[in-house]
Specification:
heterodimer; A: mainly alpha; disordered C terminus; B: alpha/beta; Rossmann fold; disordered N terminus
Chain lengths: 302, 604
């Protein structure tokens, strides 16, 4: 008997939670800043290679002479050269794709595993719930980086392994959030109604429950993306990601750290990029999560 | 109860004058031009449907508005002090001491992490009552005695979740009366309770108000509840006070068509009158028509009603109304007598539609239904009545395939059914349709009405898109909803409309049995009447068998042929509705009948 429900006109659209979530997110200053940072860096990674003055994996040649390693910025190499005389700017412009693509893939994989596990656990309750969630807890017990390192150290540095390791360690975190949100939804009568009509299980999960947990899911996925970027970059830095001579921000930091004092650009540039990228995505994630709390508050209990 | 209404003893304690509450920044009023007075020792019943603004008025008496709204006009004087002019700290000290509030939902007002004793003591301490802990403890014992709760240590050391709904509400009452306020606002404090508990809580409220001479504002959508408690009644519609007067006058000779409709929507336990719903729905703030807000739903409406809002007119001493046609309304004769439903009973075949045989249902290891057997015949309605906790919902869930832990048999046309809905055949799932208590929970908020109603069609019939569309429209029209609603979402609909959607979903499956689990208990009385009317109609026209589960005995007269009364998991009485209501054999039925609120001031 909430009288207030009628007192706040113009709230049509609450039924499309993610639209409202995005609108609420956009209204916050932090989101705009975060999004601007992310867009600039993603743009750099995507179109950067077309503007790269040199090939990323070959030394700069000026007047048929190889450039020196750790050459400071000059007319030929605008941001100097790296440890074996390649153009830092070109490598930087090429090196974002791998970090972004790998962390996006890993996040997707994490959601692809965690979402169904969380939904199933919440819906089945009982034994299956325990088995699934305790299984997730086991994965959760290992720090993400350590597990990835063990995997890579055992099998060797493979790109797919990197994605797999980060994805699998992301999954339990997604599963937990999904389960937490879904448990509440499962108790609602419309789920009983669907059961009494004989709606198949997967349709109950996908059609009845999933649409009611999109907000926490989107928030969590964004947060996981931020973490994946950091982990992927760290693994690349340690040499478990892309292998030389490929251009990659994480790898660049490692290669150029000896020359930090003479030619800082090779290190500073990728560090700034990775740092800003995680700040940007986490600002967006923060905006999303604030907006999602706002939505929850606004709709009230009916 | 039916003795003469006591006259107010003192002067007006509460004086509300032209109160106006607006949505901030929109200039849209939620409540406007509301004036009333409550005298010492008087209980004023403030009655209206959901969204009529009655809670807004109640909260305003505490100097409080909900977020996004504020008082923009008028005055509220309590004991001669205009509380709208008080500072924040003055308001704070006033609340509890001068005015206190009992909310609708007791668990929401009690802190789940604190023991009852701590909470009561805090209330006293916050208002500087009792010098020491010992004195306060004595006071708490006194308070508990007043609301008929045990005052032993064991009880005081419990947490809110260890109490029943009725006990929680009593604790809330004790807290509200703790500091001997002059005014108390009760906001539907019995809505969530079953009839027996409700009757006891109402009795306590009445006693407390009389004993302490407080002025009480009792907010409710249920006129029957008010009839047991209030001395005067004020009726709100769409943010306006449309009629106010002594209780007897309002029930006997209401001068406003809306009040009449409200009276007619109350189920009459004696079965004298037909139950009537109020068609249409109240306009929301900002969408109210010109002229009288009730005109679009009013059969008395003339052109004048659509042009200006009627002024206050005096009908008799203390009885005021805002209606141009009040003379004609008053001239209208009393409501129609009810036709005998039992006489229309069809000749029974040999085969029952549904049989329940010796069903014992368990929750965990605890049996909540004991060896219950009952029959539903085709084209007939069986009412299953009992308090909350009597096992009636569990039993109906067993029938619907939603509760699997039971022994015994559920048979459809003589064929035993598997326990769970999933194990049953598609045909069985189609034939038995279950309608849930709360339409707020039974419709997926992320699906359109069209998608919701189409769900059984998708599962039970092979239909083209166009046929599906046509059937959805037909099902919506069947329950008196516009097919245009198909694109809307549940939260854009009122509670009554949502329950209609739930019924439409059940009907779309073309069932032969509807299991209705307390489907009106989450709804306003006026809406409840309309839903019961609709169900009766559907049953007659479509030849449905009905299992109608309810805690309200008064309701079953209008819909059921037979009734089974359930208590503590057993059927204690069974028979034709008229027999059971007029000559109950079981003590439990008699008690239930006595507790059911009905309009006892209507002359026989």
């Amino acid at each position: 008997m909430s009288d207030l429900a009628v007192a706040v006109p113009g709230h049509a659209g609450r039924h499309r939670p993610w639209l409202l979530l995005l609108a609420g997110t956009w209204r916050q200053g932090r989101t705009k800043i975060g999004l601007a940072i992310v867009l600039v860096l993603v743009g750099t990674a995507l179109v950067g290679p077309f503007f790269a003055p040199y090939a990323p994996d070959e030394p700069v040649v000026v007047d048929e002479v190889f450039a020196f390693p750790f050459d400071p910025p000059s007319d030929a190499a605008k941001l100097g050269t790296d440890d074996i005389g390649r153009d830092v700017l070109s490598r930087f412009l090429w090196g974002g794709r791998s970090v972004l693509a790998l962390s996006a893939l890993a996040t997707l994989l994490g959601v692809a595993i965690g979402l169904p596990v969380g939904l199933f656990a919440a819906y089945s309750r009982g034994l299956l719930d325990d088995v699934l969630m305790r299984g997730m807890d086991v994965i959760l017990a290992f720090p993400q980086l350590v597990l990835a390192l063990v995997a890579v150290a055992t099998v060797g540095p493979q790109i797919w392994l990197l994605v797999l390791a980060v994805g699998i360690t992301t999954a339990p975190r997604v599963a937990r959030v999904v389960r937490g949100a879904a448990v509440e939804v499962v108790e609602r009568d419309f789920v009983r109604a669907a059961e009494s009509l004989g709606e198949p299980r997967r349709r109950i999960l996908a059609g009845e429950i999933l649409p009611n947990i999109t907000s926490p899911l989107v928030v969590e996925a964004t947060l996981r993306f931020t973490f994946s970027i950091a982990v992927i970059a760290a693994l690349s830095f340690l040499g478990f990601g892309l292998q030389p001579p490929a251009a990659d921000w994480g790898l660049m930091i490692n290669e150029n750290r000896q020359g930090l004092e003479v030619q800082p650009w090779g290190v500073v540039l990728p560090i700034a990029a990775i740092g800003l990228l995680t700040i940007g995505t986490s600002l967006v994630g923060d905006g999303l999560s604030r907006a999602s709390i706002g939505i929850e508050r606004g709709s009230g209990e009916r | 109860m039916s003795s003469t209404d006591p006259l107010p003893t003192g002067g007006a304690v509460v004086e509300v004058e032209s109160l106006r509450v607006e949505v901030i920044g929109q200039g849209v009023d939620i409540v406007d031009d509301v004036s009333f007075q409550v005298a010492e020792g008087e209980v004023l019943g403030l009655v209206g449907e959901s969204g009529s603004g009655k809670t807004t008025v109640g909260l305003a008496l505490l100097g409080h508005t909900r977020r996004g709204v504020r008082v923009t006009g008028g005055s509220i004087a309590i004991d001669g002090r205009d509380i709208l002019r008080l500072s924040r700290s003055e308001l704070q000290s006033m609340r509890g001491r001068l005015v206190s509030y009992v909310p609708q939902d007791p668990p929401a007002s009690l802190n789940p992490a604190l023991r009852i004793e701590t909470q009561l003591e805090e209330t006293l301490a916050a208002h500087g009552h009792g010098a020491g802990a010992e004195e306060r403890r004595a006071r708490i014992r006194e308070m508990l005695g007043e609301v008929l709760l045990p005052d032993e240590r064991g009880f005081l050391r419990r947490y809110p979740h260890q109490l029943s709904g009725g006990q929680q509400q009593r604790v809330a009452l004790a807290m509200a009366f703790a500091c001997r306020p002059r005014v108390i606002v009760l906001d539907e404090p019995t809505t969530g309770l079953d009839v027996t508990t409700q009757a006891h809580v109402l009795e306590t409220v009445r006693e407390l108000c009389r004993a302490h001479g407080v002025a009480a504002l009792y907010i409710t959508h249920d006129l029957a509840v008010v009839s047991a408690l209030a001395t005067r009644v004020a009726v709100m519609y769409a943010g306006r006070l449309v009629e106010a007067g002594p209780k007897r006058q309002l029930f006997h000779a209401a001068a406003h068509p809306y009040t009449r409709k409200l009276v007619h929507a109350i189920p009459d336990i004696a079965g004298r009158y037909e139950l009537e719903g109020i068609p249409g729905r109240a306009p929301s703030p900002g969408q109210r028509p010109d002229g009288c807000f009730f005109a679009p739903r009013c059969e008395f409406a003339v052109d004048e009603c659509r042009q200006s809002f009627p002024p206050v007119t005096r009908v008799s001493a203390g009885h005021e109304v805002r209606c141009f046609r009040s003379d004609d309304v008053l001239a209208e004769s009393v409501r129609e007598r009810m036709g005998a439903k039992a006489a229309q009973r069809a000749v029974r075949g040999e085969q029952t539609l549904l049989s329940v045989r010796r069903v014992t249902a368990l929750y965990g290891d605890v049996p909540v239904v004991h060896e219950v057997s009952l029959d539903v015949w085709p084209r007939e309605c069986l009412a299953l009545v009992g308090e909350s906790g009597s096992g009636k919902t569990t039993l109906s869930r067993c029938i619907g395939g939603l509760h699997r832990h039971f022994t015994g048999d559920v048979l459809l046309r003589g064929t035993p059914l598997p326990r769970g809905a999933r194990e049953r055949t598609r045909e069985t799932r189609k034939e038995i349709q279950y309608i849930f208590q709360s339409p707020y929970s039974s419709l997926n908020p992320r699906k359109t009405i069209g998608q919701i109603v189409a769900q059984p069609l998708r599962l039970f019939f092979e239909l083209s898109r166009r046929e599906m569309q046509a059937r959805v429209d037909a099902a919506l029209e069947r329950v008196a909803l516009s097919p245009a609603l198909a694109d809307r979402y549940p939260d854009q609909l009122s509670g009554g409309e949502r329950q209609r959607v739930a019924i439409a979903r059940a009907l779309a499956a073309e069932p032969s049995l509807l299991v209705c689990d307390e489907i009106t208990s989450a709804l306003d009385v006026s809406v409840q009447a309309a839903i019961v009317e609709l169900l009766g109609e559907l049953q007659r026209e479509m030849g449905l068998g009905l299992l109608f589960v309810t805690h309200n005995l008064a309701l079953i007269r209008s819909i059921a042929e037979e009734v089974a009364v359930m208590s503590e998991g057993r059927i204690v009485e069974f028979g034709a509705v008229a027999e059971v209501l007029e000559a109950p054999k079981a003590d439990y039925t008699r008690k239930l009948l006595a507790d059911t609120p009905t309009l006892d001031v209507v002359p026989a």
